[in-house]
Amino acid sequence: MHLAIAPRRLRLKRPLETAHGTIAERELLDVLVIGADGIAGAGEAAPLESYDGVALDDVRAALEDCRAIVREADGRPLHQVLADCREAAVLPQAVAALDLALWDREGRRLRASVAALLGGKAGANVAVNAVVGATDPAAAARAATAAAEAGHRCVKLKVGVGDDVARVAAVRAALGPAVALRLDANGAWATPAEAERALRALAPFELVEEPVHGVAALRELQAALPQTAVAMDESGVEPGAVGSGATRLVCLKLTRCGGISGLVEAAEQARAAGSEVFLASTFDGPLGIAGALHAAAAIEPTRPCGLATLSAFADLDLDPALAVEDGFMRVPTGPGLGVRA
Length: 341
Ligand SMILES: [Mg+2]
Fold this sequence. Notes:
Layout: E1 2-18, E2 21-34, E3 40-45, H1 49-52, H2 56-64, H3 67-71, H4 78-88, H5 92-110, H6 114-117, E4 125-127, E5 130-132, H7 137-149, E6 154-158, H8 164-175, E7 180-184, H9 192-202, E8 208-209, H10 215-224, E9 230-232, E10 249-253, H11 254-257, H12 260-272, E11 276-280, H13 286-299, E12 328-330
Parallel strand pairs: 5-6, 6-7, 7-8, 8-9, 9-10, 10-11
Antiparallel strand pairs: 1-2, 2-3, 4-12
The protein binds magnesium ion.
């Protein structure tokens, strides 16, 4: 198989402020694999250096480490090729790109959606949350109202930035009781005790992502607040973290898990340890979002997923298969990933 790698830049309509910095644009690597039969599959690498500390050039180098494996991949079973890539590429972001491309090609070759190949249902609805990025309480409340009016039943708000108490109160008042309020601290609080104090002042909410960094700190906080739904997110990179059972929930991301195959495996590990799972993106491009939807068809998360992020991009000619309607996205039904990049 031939492997082609090309950079791609996506600009955000508005810069997003988070506890780990401001995101203004995304730089991705588009990956294409073309078999000897002429059938192609497309994937993308979407590292976010300010968030995961992974630079685009390092991902490109990790992809190059897999070039020889891809060259010899014709006729080999998909899972064997992916296992070899996982060993050769040091970065999950690179593995994710190849995983997406190889699954896309496999589906196109078999004229089946990736969801169906995973035992899930193409066309299934996946509930998705909206994200409110505004830090000013009045602007955040207006954005939350717009999200609720668009049909979202869950709205996520970044905390650990500015006056959280005022912003959370304004957004909760705007949403009313029918729409869930999700918080994401991106590890803003330094200790479990600090996080506990902050969360007691912000309650009630649906769940909080990554209030503190580190499996040990998350476990301590979850024990101190047994009624609170704490979700591990960034700390999922620690070895064994996803299957540690430290928190009630685990937020899984395609880029961090090494693609669709990695997401499905991680969900099994988390559930085996008693944690509930949901999926989210790190402002992935359209192929990453499509891959996560196919994985969601197999995983069937019980909470809204953070996959409605494509509308944040300016100048993206969005495939209608990735539209958000009434708070839901649908698992694409076409062959492979079922979308164009
Ligand atoms: Mg998060």
